[in-house]
UniProtKB/TrEMBL annotation:
Domain Transcription elongation factor GreA/GreB N-terminal, first and last residues per copy: 5-75
Source species taxonomy: Bacteria, Pseudomonadati, Pseudomonadota, Alphaproteobacteria, Sphingomonadales
Descriptive protein name: Transcription elongation factor GreB
Keywords: DNA-binding, Elongation factor, Protein biosynthesis, Transcription, Transcription regulation
Domain of life per record: Bacteria
PANTHER family from the UniProt entry: TRANSCRIPTION ELONGATION FACTOR GREA, TRANSCRIPTION ELONGATION FACTOR GREB
Domain Transcription elongation factor GreA/GreB C-terminal residues, every copy: 85-157
């Protein structure tokens, strides 16, 4: 049984844009190349044909994965969060560790997470530890290097003004 996957409206739009790019642009171009290569005769030694078929399978596989992600996506707009005093999906949190090192993270869907940009997935260890936290709470996160404590310094949500 599949579970629903929370995702921001921007993350869902990115999934849809990638799907459209593959389906409407890249796949037809590869199909055209494969059709042209197939007309050139012996397919067993035809590099354009062999590579094109491999590329087509890869595109179809990615389209299937994107379709599945979109089917189970639960689009949640963080700007509509009624309780802004706690950490929920879409929150941007300023954290401080014991050495007073600050880190800002935003909790997003797992499909749109990018740790280097400060976007962590909803099911990541840090996000799970922070769920429901308030300013001043100290949460312990178990990392491969051992447990680490983070204090919640600030919580914010987008305003929703477009």
């Amino acid at each position: 049984m599949e579970r629903t996957n929370p995702i921001t409206p921007a993350g869902f739009a990115a999934l849809r844009a990638r799907y459209q790019q593959l389906f409407a642009v890249e796949r037809p171009a590869v199909v055209e190349t494969v059709s042209w290569a197939a007309g050139n005769g012996d397919r067993s030694e035809n590099g354009d044909y062999i590579y094109g078929k491999q590329k087509l399978r890869a595109i179809d596989r990615e389209l299937g994965q994107l379709s599945k992600k979109m089917k189970f996506a639960n689009v949640l707009d963080p700007a509509k969060q009624p309780d802004r005093s706690r950490v929920f999906f879409g929150a941007t949190i300023l954290l401080a560790d014991i050495d007073d090192t600050h880190r800002t993270v935003t909790i997003v869907g797992d499909d749109e997470a990018e740790a280097s940009d400060g976007r962590i997935g909803w099911n990541s260890p840090l996000a799970r530890a922070l769920r429901g936290a308030k300013v001043g709470d100290v949460k312990t996160v178990t990392l491969p290097s051992g447990p680490k404590e983070w204090e919640v310094m600030e919580i914010s949500y987008p305003d929703g003004v477009e």
